[in-house]
């Protein structure tokens, strides 16, 4: 697909990676607008095409008392306000067929969670909305297997598919990124590296997922060197008190320096020919 197909995606002529970035979950309007404003300023300065990310609900949680959202339509309306306020596209993940039709009324990109990427009915429903469909690679799947997920979108009459690698299970409580998969998946669709989820440490005995945010720049640099089309980074101004995935999110204050370094690396890689 052509990134020109994404409404309000700016800086497409800058030869940069594009960025999906925002909080794990929409916790409220003020926090979403605060994060979006900061990231928009940074990405405009660095000429990075930017899509605001925020989950309107969290269906895959370790415990029944984990935060799942503030209400579906309330959160989706906040995503729409972010889009309208800053003139940027938005992405959110969906979990059920009905979510596809609901979320498509508010956002530009529908994201399929990694653990649901083999669910044919869900993929078809997302494709039939006509929105861009971002397919997260299952932690249990090979890069080559993502060809079939992309084909399901195309067979449903939608050519607008992305793939996002979010790591592969390594034992019970860790993830690894196999960078050999990036050129493989780029044959099928634009490929994004989910930096922060790749650093999750799931299945902790506490029931709260851990993470290694200290390794964010390491993984992100390797992705840029290996020609990923986009990066996915979750960020928050107070990760320690975020309601979801705080353990592996990047502090918002660290984002500009990280992206500045990554843009410098991408310019160098572009010059290699």
From TrEMBL:
InterPro entries: Aldolase_TIM, DAHP1/KDSA, KDO8P_synthase. GO terms for biological process: lipopolysaccharide biosynthetic process. Its main location: cytoplasm. One of its GO terms (cellular component) is cytoplasm. Gene3D superfamilies: Aldolase class I. Its EC number is 2.5.1.55. This is 3-deoxy-8-phosphooctulonate synthase. The lineage of its organism: Bacteria, Pseudomonadati, Bacteroidota, Flavobacteriia, Flavobacteriales.
């Amino acid at each position: 697909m052509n990134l020109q197909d994404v409404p309000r995606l700016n800086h497409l002529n800058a030869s940069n990676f594009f960025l999906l970035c925002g909080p794990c979950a929409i916790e409220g309007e003020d926090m979403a607008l605060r994060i979006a404003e900061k990231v928009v300023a940074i990405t405009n300065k660095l000429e990075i095409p930017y899509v605001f990310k925020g989950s309107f609900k969290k269906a895959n949680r370790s415990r029944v008392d984990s935060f799942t959202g503030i209400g579906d339509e309330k959160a989706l309306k906040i995503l729409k306000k972010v889009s309208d306020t800053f003139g940027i596209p938005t992405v959110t993940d969906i979990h059920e067929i009905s979510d596809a039709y609901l979320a498509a009324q508010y956002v530009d990109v529908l994201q399929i969670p990694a653990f649901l990427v083999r669910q044919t009915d869900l993929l078809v429903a997302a494709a039939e909305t006509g929105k861009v469909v971002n397919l997260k690679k299952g932690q249990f799947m090979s890069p080559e297997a993502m060809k079939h997920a992309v084909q399901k979108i195309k067979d449903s009459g939608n050519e607008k598919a992305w793939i996002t690698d979010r790591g592969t299970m390594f034992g019970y409580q860790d993830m690894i990124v196999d960078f050999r998969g990036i050129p493989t998946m780029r044959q099928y669709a634009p490929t994004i590296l989910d930096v922060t989820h790749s650093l999750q440490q799931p299945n902790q005995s506490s029931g709260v997922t851990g993470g290694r945010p200290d390794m964010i720049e390491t993984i992100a640099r390797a992705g840029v060197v290996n020609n990923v089309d986009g990066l996915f980074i979750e960020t928050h101004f107070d990760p320690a008190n975020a309601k979801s995935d705080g353990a592996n999110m990047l502090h918002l204050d660290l984002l500009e320096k990280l992206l500045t370094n990554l843009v410098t690396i991408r310019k160098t890689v572009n010059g290699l020919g």
